[in-house]
Design a protein that fits this description.
Blueprint: H1 3-35, H2 40-66, H3 73-102, H4 114-162, H5 165-181, H6 183-201, E1 209-210, H7 211-226, E2 235-240, E3 247-248, H8 254-263, E4 271-277, E5 281-289, H9 301-313, E6 318-324, E7 328-336
Parallel strand pairs: 2-4
Antiparallel strand pairs: 1-3, 4-5, 5-7, 6-7
Helix pairs in contact: 1-2, 2-3, 2-4, 3-4, 4-9, 5-6, 6-7, 7-8
C-alpha cells in the first residue's frame, strides 16, 4: 500500500478512536448528571471514571492483536479475564488515590459496587471488541479488493506483454520460411500458433486455468520460439509429473521462456527448461547461455512482471531464485499448491 494510503488509513483510525471516546464521554456525563447536578466536578468525575476503562480497552486491543489474531484463544481469554479484574481494582485505586493528585480541590468517591464496575468494564471490553472486529473486517476487505485490482492490472499488463507484435511477426516469418522448404511442417506450426493465440486471448483471461492447458500452451510457445534458432541440439523443454486436476495462474512462466530465446547465445544456443509437478508443488527451472553484450539486460521488465504476479497470486507460497555467471542465466521458481 502506498504511503499516502497508509497515512489516510492511520488518520481515519485515530478519528474513529477519538469519536468513540467523545461519544462515551457525552453518554456518561449525561448519565451522571441525571443523579447529580452538571458541574465542573461531574466533568472531573467522568474523566476519572474513564481512566481505568481506557487503559483496559487498549490493553485488550493489544491482547487481541498478540493472541486472538494468531488463533491463541486460551491466552486471549485469560488476558481478557485479568484485564476485567484489573479494571475493577484500578477504578477504586483511581478514586481513592489518583483523584487526590489530579484534582486536589475535590474529594471523590466511587458510587458503584465492584459488580457494577465490572459490568461497566465488561460492557466496554465487549463493545470495543466488536467494533475492532468490524473495523478489521472492513480493512481486510478493502485490502483484498485493492489486491484484486492490482492483480487484474498486473495480469492484464503481463497478458499484453506476451501478445506482442514481435512474437507474432517472428512466428509468422519463421513459418513462412519453413513453408518454402517443408510445407507439411508449416501447417503444424500454423496450428500451434493459432492455439497459442487463442489461449493467450481467451483461456488465460481467467485468474486460474488447468495446469494441463498451461503446459500445452508452454510447449507450443516453446516450439514456436524454437523456430528462431538454427541449431536446436541443446534446446529442450521437459515436463515431469501428472498435471491433471491442478489449477494454476496462467502465463507466469511464458515471459521467462521468451527471455531465454531472446537473450540466448546466437551461435551456440543452450536452453534447458523443465517443469516438475507433484500434488503439493510445481517446480520450474529455466537455464540459457547468452552473448556477452546481452548479459545485463535479461532480468528486465518481463521478470519484474513475473515477480509481481507471483507475489499477488501466491503470497508466502512461492520461491524465486535468479542466478547468473559468466556463461549462464538461470531462474528457479517453486510454487506451493493449495
Amino acid at each position: 500500500m502506498p504511503p499516502s494510503a497508509m497515512t489516510t488509513s492511520t488518520r481515519r483510525g485515530w478519528a474513529l478512536h477519538l469519536l468513540f471516546w467523545a461519544i462515551s464521554y457525552v453518554i456518561l456525563i449525561i448519565t451522571f448528571s441525571r443523579e447529580y447536578d452538571t458541574t465542573q466536578a461531574n466533568h472531573a468525575y467522568t474523566l476519572l471514571f474513564h481512566l481505568p476503562i481506557v487503559l483496559v480497552v487498549y490493553g485488550n486491543l493489544w491482547s487481541f492483536n498478540k493472541y486472538f489474531l494468531k488463533k491463541k484463544i486460551l491466552p486471549y481469554v485469560l488476558s481478557f479475564c485479568l484485564l476485567l479484574a484489573f479494571g475493577i481494582m484500578l477504578h477504586f485505586l483511581v478514586f481513592e488515590r489518583l483523584s487526590l493528585l489530579l484534582f486536589p480541590g475535590y474529594y471523590f468517591i466511587s458510587y458503584y459496587t465492584a459488580i457494577e464496575i465490572g459490568v461497566f468494564v465488561l460492557t466496554y471490553l465487549g463493545l470495543t471488541f466488536l467494533l475492532f472486529l468490524s473495523t478489521n473486517w472492513f480493512s481486510l476487505r478493502e485490502r483484498q479488493l485493492q489486491l484484486e485490482k492490482e492483480n487484474n492490472a498486473v495480469r492484464l499488463h503481463a497478458l499484453r506483454s506476451q501478445i506482442n507484435p514481435h512474437f507474432l511477426f517472428n512466428s509468422l516469418n519463421n513459418i513462412y520460411s519453413l513453408a518454402k522448404e517443408k510445407q507439411g511442417q508449416a501447417s503444424q506450426y500454423i496450428l500451434k500458433l493459432s492455439e497459442s493465440l487463442r489461449y493467450m486471448l481467451y483461456d488465460a483471461d481467467s485468474e486460474y486455468v488447468s495446469l494441463e492447458d498451461e503446459l500445452e500452451h508452454l510447449k507450443n510457445y516453446f516450439e514456436l520460439e524454437k523456430l528462431r534458432i538454427s541449431d536446436k541440439t541443446m534446446v529442450q523443454f521437459r515436463v515431469k509429473g501428472d498435471p491433471s486436476g491442478i489449477p494454476v495462474a496462467p502465463l507466469v512462466f511464458t515471459p521467462i521462456i521468451e527471455n531465454a530465446f531472446k537473450y540466448v547465445h546466437a551461435e551456440a544456443p543452450v536452453i534447458d527448461a523443465q517443469i516438475v509437478v507433484d500434488r503439493s508443488e510445481i517446480t520450474f527451472n529455466c537455464k540459457n547461455n547468452y552473448s556477452d553484450g546481452k548479459a545485463r539486460h535479461q532480468g528486465g521488465l518481463g521478470l519484474k512482471n513475473v515477480k509481481e504476479r507471483l507475489a499477488l497470486l501466491y503470497p508466502q507460497q512461492h520461491v524465486i531464485n535468479i542466478a547468473q555467471d559468466d556463461d549462464f542465466f538461470s531462474i528457479f521458481i517453486q510454487i506451493e499448491l493449495p
